[in-house]
């Protein structure tokens, strides 16, 4: 169980980066419907770039499943409440939120359970 925290941190970072890249992908792919500019026209290079990176969402989904399992195990080991676990899980679905949550989790673990926070 001592390796759970480093695994959580790596998965949180990967999920967060993939979510931000996926969000950028969605903006490039579907942004032409929102912003009526020549560079966002249907079939533009930006839209094609968004189409090329659609696989990011599938990869994010697989990594997110591993993140959910590790977050559940970590919250169980730390004896955290269900709302704390819910925050951990929701953080992997809201762009940018996971970085703040990971920072808070690290601080809380170091304070409450230093034996779990060893890297």
Can you describe this structure in just a few lines?
This protein is mainly alpha-helical and about 120 residues long. It has a domain at about 5-25 and about 55-110. It has helices at about 5-30, 45-50, 55-75, 80-90, 95-110.
User: Helical residue percent?
Assistant: over 70%
Radius of gyration: 18 Å
Mean pLDDT: 85
DSSP summary, beta strand count: 0
The low-confidence parts are: none
Tell me the β content.
Answer: under 5%
Summarize the helix and strand pattern as letters: HHHHH
Question: Ends: how far apart?
Answer: 11 Å
What key phrases describe this protein's structure?
119 residues
Structural overview:
The protein is mostly helical and 119 residues long. It has a domain at 4-25 and 55-112. The protein has helices at 4-30, 45-52, 55-77, 82-91, 97-112. The protein is elongated, with a radius of gyration of 18 Å. The mean pLDDT is 85.
């Amino acid at each position: 169980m001592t390796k759970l925290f480093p695994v959580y941190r790596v998965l949180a970072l990967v999920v967060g980066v993939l979510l931000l890249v996926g969000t950028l992908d969605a903006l490039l792919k579907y942004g032409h419907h929102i912003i009526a500019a020549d560079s966002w026209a249907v079939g533009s290079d930006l839209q094609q770039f968004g189409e090329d990176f659609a696989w990011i969402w599938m990869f994010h989904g697989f990594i997110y499943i591993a993140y959910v399992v590790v977050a559940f195990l970590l919250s169980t080991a730390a004896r955290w409440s269900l709302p704390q676990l819910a925050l951990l899980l929701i953080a992997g679905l809201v762009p940018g939120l996971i970085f703040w949550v990971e920072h808070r989790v690290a601080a809380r673990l170091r304070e409450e359970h230093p034996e779990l926070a060893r890297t």
